[in-house]
Specification:
Elements (H helix, E strand, L loop, with lengths): L12 E7 L3 H6 L3 H9 L9 E5 L5 E9 L1 H4 L5 H6 L5 E7 L6 H10 L15 E3 L7 H19 L7 H15 L2 E6 L2 H4 L3 H7 L7 E7 L5 E6 L1 E5 L8 H4 L7 H16 L4 E11 L11 E3 L5 E3 L7 H14 L4 E6 L3 H7 L4 E5 L2 H13 L4 E4 L16 E2 L8 H13 L4 E5 L3 E2 L9 E2 L4 H11 L3
Parallel strand pairs: 1-3, 1-4, 4-5, 8-10, 8-13, 9-10, 12-16, 13-17, 14-15
Antiparallel strand pairs: 2-3, 6-7, 7-10, 11-12, 14-17, 18-19
Helix pairs in contact: 5-6, 6-11, 7-11, 9-12, 11-16, 12-15, 14-16
Organism: Leisingera caerulea
Protein name: Leucyl aminopeptidase family protein
Family: Belongs to the peptidase M17 family.
């Protein structure tokens, strides 16, 4: 179950968020026994510190949470979450010290400390529960937490239990929850309905490729989300080495992220027409596998020379983007765990995005900072278009040389979005090292920032 706020109770333990630069003045106003306890335990208000202060009968009278300095906070997404993870199980309420503008983000971080991926083993330990801070929209924060947990669960599930069929089932469950419509084009029907690239990438697996199509809403601007749903990527005939294949259960992270974003949108009841397209495949090795050197014809009619079967994500996205563009939505967004080049450029925490629209980029950058969901704009650098144009086909799926790999992949996808207003995210979808409220494993990236920016981007 996704984490929720604790039911308000007069017995909830008060938490005082104390910044390191104001700690001494705050402490001087406390009873002598509180001063002595804090000093005895070395509490200084540094980020990550947590201290339970006992009352007269051994119960916890109050809790102190280090809020650090401005410099320390700038290096963290969720400051209170670090302290929350160290507090004993129980119910807590924020009593003082938390800036009003930080309440929503910090309470979301606190909720996310309760996330556990417990499908395969019993979760250990209970999290400290938080009452919703005054002035915070509790339902909205809980909805964000639920979306994040959905995305994490989908990515964390191994490919043995999260193939194209199971990804379709997850989308269907989400559609049922919010009254959306869903349809699927499966297997050989992909060829009959002109989705040749999706079929080609998935045909070597005994788990049939498919295109999942979810629709919700009947009024307002049209928003289409396209998520890469490669449920496992062996690399195909350009087989990945073992260490590169180890995390390929997360190669459907783009699909998981657009489903998380779709959940936020539907739960909030935004006045828009939402469409979610997920090409769901497994890139496997068998006799029917597509080959390096093959030339494929896409739904749009553009031909693609395959120079690396491990650059399959852009192929399945191409057909889905072409379909999306046929409806000319007001905004088209793709999310994909697409290139290692993006990780080299910005690391695992930032979500690189591409857009030709400066106003969209500005709106997204503004919301990213306040939602603790960092993004970074990358360029659709037109002079690199020649790098994706081989000699014998319209496009090259894996330009040689290795330069600007994320940019050339984004330029490839833009060809299929056509004239539609388009934004692309080349995300990692994974937290490689545990951090407060962000355990090692699947991650939602860019979706919260997008959700917050959509009212400005679509004038809702």
């Amino acid at each position: 179950m996704p984490p929720v706020f604790a039911v308000p109770s007069p017995d909830a333990c008060p938490v005082h968020a104390v910044a390191s630069d104001t700690f001494e003045s705050w402490l001087s106003g406390q009873p002598q026994r509180v001063q002595a306890w804090a000093k005895a335990h070395g509490f200084t208000g540094a980020c990550g510190q947590a201290l339970a202060v006992p009352g007269a009968y051994g119960t916890i009278e109050m809790a102190l949470a280090g809020y650090g300095s401005a410099a320390q906070r700038a290096r963290r997404r969720f400051v209170l979450a670090e302290a929350a993870q160290k507090l004993p199980a129980g119910s807590y309420r924020i009593a003082s010290g938390l800036p009003a503008g930080a309440a929503a983000t910090e309470s979301l971080g606190w909720l996310l400390t309760a996330y556990r991926f417990d499908r395969y083993k019993e979760a250990k330990g209970e999290a400290a529960a938080l009452e919703a801070p005054e002035g915070v929209d509790a339902a909205a924060i809980e909805s964000l937490a639920a979306a994040e947990c959905l995305t994490r669960d989908l990515i964390n599930t191994p490919a043995s239990d999260m193939g194209p069929e199971q990804l379709q089932a997850a989308a269907a469950a989400l559609a049922e929850e919010f009254g959306a419509e869903i349809s699927t084009i499966l297997g050989e029907d992909l060829l009959a309905q002109n989705f040749p690239l999706i079929h080609t990438v998935g045909r070597a697996s005994d788990r049939a490729p498919r295109l999942i199509d979810l629709r919700w809403g009947s009024s307002g601007p049209k928003l289409t989300l396209v998520g890469k749903g490669v449920c496992f990527d062996t690399g195909g005939l350009n087989l990945k080495p073992g260490n590169s294949m180890a995390l390929m259960k997360k190669d459907m992270g783009g699909a998981a992220n657009v489903l998380g974003l779709a959940r936020m949108i539907m739960a909030a009841g935004l006045d828009l027409q939402l469409r979610v397209l997920i090409p769901a495949v497994e890139n496997s090795v068998s006799g029917p596998a597509f080959r390096p050197g093959d030339v494929l014809t896409s739904r749009k009619g553009l031909t693609v020379e395959v120079n690396n079967t491990d650059a399959e994500g852009r192929l399945v996205l191409a057909d889905a983007l072409a379909l999306a563009a046929e409806e000319t939505p007001d905004l088209l967004i793709s999310m994909a765990t697409l290139t290692g080049a993006a990780r080299v450029a910005v690391g695992p925490d930032l979500s690189p995005f591409y857009t030709d629209h400066d106003t969209d980029a500005a709106a997204l950058s503004a919301t990213a900072s306040r939602t603790a969901d960092p993004v970074w704009r990358m360029p659709f650098h037109d002079p690199y278009e020649t790098m994706i144009e081989p000699g014998i086909a319209d496009l090259d799926n894996a330009p040689s040389g290795g330069f600007a790999g994320s940019i050339t992949a984004a330029l490839f996808l833009r060809r299929f979005a056509g004239e539609t207003r388009y934004m692309h995210f080349d995300i990692y979808g994974w937290t490689p090292s545990a951090a407060p409220a962000r355990p090692k494993g699947g991650a939602l990236q860019g979706a919260r920032a997008l959700f917050a920016a959509l009212p400005d981007m679509l004038e809702l």
